[in-house]
# Entry
Amino acid sequence: MPVELDWENLGFSYMKLPYRYIAYYKNGQWEEGRLTDDATLHISESSPALHYGQQAFEGLKAYRTKSGVIQLFRPDENAKRLQRTADRLLMPQVPTDMFIKACKQVTKANEDYVPPYGTGGTLYLRPLLIGVGDIIGVKPADEYIFTVFAMPVGNYFKGGLVPTNFLIQDEYDRAAPHGTGAAKVGGNYAASLLPGDQAKKAGFSDVIYLDPATHTKIEEVGSANFFGITANNEFITPISPSILPSITKYSLLYLAEKRLGLKAIESDVFVDDLEKFTEAGACGTAAVISPIGGVQNGDAFHVFYSETEVGPVTQQLYDELTGIQFGDIEAPEGWIVIVD
Ligand code: PLP
Ligand code: COI
# Structure
């Protein structure tokens, strides 16, 4: 049974739950992982994760369905993305079955913190892979920690399904053209802290970054991917080697085409060509689908559908995606993993 919490108003904040998973990589192999109630990591002061950013993370959610069953959404895709990120940073891969088992164990051990069905809340899981040990030269660690912790969350952007505004950033980049933008590494987020803070202080939900090579195309939001809908029933998301390959975005590309009958397109999205979009949104695990009301682009402010109301196609996509995640709508094969 869920514990007593203000489930409807969770927001997106850290909460220390009773259990997390931890596994150590030593002598070239993963040791057996286990659950622990210790929420503090004990690592060497010289750990490469601390100095050279040899670390990666993931984000996925557990959902409580109407019947009370708890399920994960496409955890194998998070496992695969973490493996690609690990390759990029010369870290050992966490095998997919170990990753999914860890996520299931942490969810099960903290099941009283999986928000009740109907509150809109979910259990956010944060897998983390870090290089540790006594190393001071710039080289990969010999030892690693893989941990998964969790917390109940609600909306990431304060509006939820009410549109909010975003700031197109022309001064700073989150990633380099051939850097680590497509990998889920902390360094990308460190680069986004200053522009993100400036945008929030100016009243925007987050930054929309442009392609780092030419600053003419939309890349993504600091914490989510971007999509737009056109009057020709197209669902368009930017294509670029320096944006994070969002699992939500690829799910929406599939659902837009197969379930909503839209044309799903990954292509360049020129910042001078926003007029063609009748609706726009940010999508991601934390962001779910967050409608973008308007964007500030230099001196110009461009409104997509409305600053106060979600557009009809964005609403349909939201209903389809969250219906699948909460078990109300049949999922495409392999998308749902039950926590048993
Ligand atoms: N882009 C960035 C920069 C993110 O941090 C996230 C969040 O994970 C996403 C996109 C969305 O990815 P996903 O849908 O896999 O959560
Ligand atoms: C996620 O959606 O899982 C993210 O990682 C976004 C943000 C919290 C960094």
Remarks:
- The chain has six helices and 18 strands.
- The mean pLDDT is 97.
- Residues 164-325 form a domain with the D-amino Acid Aminotransferase; Chain A, domain 2 fold (CATH 3.20.10.10).
